[in-house]
Amino acid sequence: MFAVRRGWLRDRCAAAGSAAALVSRPANVRYLAGGAPPGAVLLVGPAEDVLLCPQTPSGDLIEGHLDEQLRITVLPAPGGDPAVAAADLAQTSGADSLAVEEHHLSVARHRALGSVAPRLLLSDLGGAVEQRRLVKDEDEIACLRIAAEITDQALGELLESILVGRTERHLALELERRLVDHGADGPAFMTSVGTGPNSGRAGHRPADRRVEEGDFLSVCLGATYRGYRCEIGRTFVIGTTPADWQIELYDAVFAAQRAGREALVPGAEYRAVDRAARQVLDSAGHAEAFGPLTGHGVGIEIDEEPQLAPGAMGKLDTCVPVTVEPGVHLPGRGGVRIDDTLVVRPEADGGPELLTITTKELLAL
Q1: Quick one: CA dihedral 121, 2, 138, 233, positive or negative?
Q2: What pLDDT is recorded for position 291?
Q3: Which residue from 13, 109, 180, 350 has the highest number of Cβ atoms inside 10 Å of its Cβ?
Q4: pLDDT-derived band of residue 46, with 50, 70 and 90 as boundaries?
Q5: Cα 278–132–321 angle (5° rounding)?
Q6: Per the record, which residues fall in region Disordered (predicted)?
């Protein structure tokens, strides 16, 4: 599989007039090599592919499982730059041109490549690998599906425990421990737990505020499994029947999330998905409280293309996994976020595949 991906890149570079490609962005290295040891770069050459590492790969699960067909070269001296070594290797191997990821290289690093290999014509690979990563194959989707199952398990167990009196930070740490207990490589991102006035805030960092009866409790978490990351967000009420304003706000966000999910069809414009969710909350009077986007792609990174936002250009393809995560936060009161990971599928295949299945009913815990 990884050899096929590198073959695609080799052919693409050859068609554009480049003899070799240097991939330095870690997520792209992992996509093409099976793993991404810290600092490693991948040289895709006309005859051989080489992973250059600043130190011997540890074999740690979080680094991935490197393709056994790939040659691995460890720099002989500490402190060396694998990208510079790769450019030198490309030149000595007879390449006259090299495509690089200019969006990932610093100016100083780009100059160093030209200095060590002055006969190489450097060109820009652009976001070619990121675009290739956008549509997932069924093996990738299977990893996302398992990551979602792990995430649902961890969240479900938390909902069965006593929550009143515990801090946001404590709950977040417990969720991350449960992810690992159920087989995750680790959390897909920093787990967010918000209570009371902190609930519903996007990216809220858990603090020492304790859960109180009557609070909204919003949780956003995700597991990483074999390098692939998913995301789920839910909001609950603690210990009592929800207040009228909580029910009204929750119903509005739930309706917006449902509209966004239903808009996930192959060929739909990214901004049309955002508009479907945004219009619901606009009509409910929450236009100003809605964030800058409705969702985003997921995969090796937790925030990938596409961006489901008002100004986003492009259309959805089949087998693109995305989040749909509208939310509203009312300052001083709290708010609601509902977040799912789904895979775009045609209507003939049942429509969008929902990976995160924890109930979206407004539960009183």
Answers
A1: negative
A2: 87
A3: 13
A4: confident
A5: 40
A6: 189-208
CA 345 vs CA 72, 116, 259, 301, 325: distances in Å:
38, 48, 16, 21, 18
Residue with tokens 């995560």: 325
Q: For strands 186-187 and 223-225, give the pairing.
A: antiparallel
Sign of the torsion angle spanned by Cα atoms 64, 65, 70, 76: positive
Dihedral angle sign, alpha carbons of residues 66, 135, 189, 158: negative
DSSP string spanning 129-167? HHHHHHS--HHHHHHHHHHHHHHHHHHHHHHTS--TT-B
Cα 253 to the center of its chain, rounded Å: 23
Give residue for tokens 């393709």.
Answer: 67
Say if residues 165 and 193 touch (Cβ distance below 8 Å). no
Instruction: Inform me whether the pLDDT recorded for 206 exceeds 90.
Output: yes
* Other Cβ atoms closer than 10 A to 315: 14
Residue type, position 187, single letter? P
- State the average pLDDT over residues 51-76: 90
Distance CA 191, CA 9 (A): 35
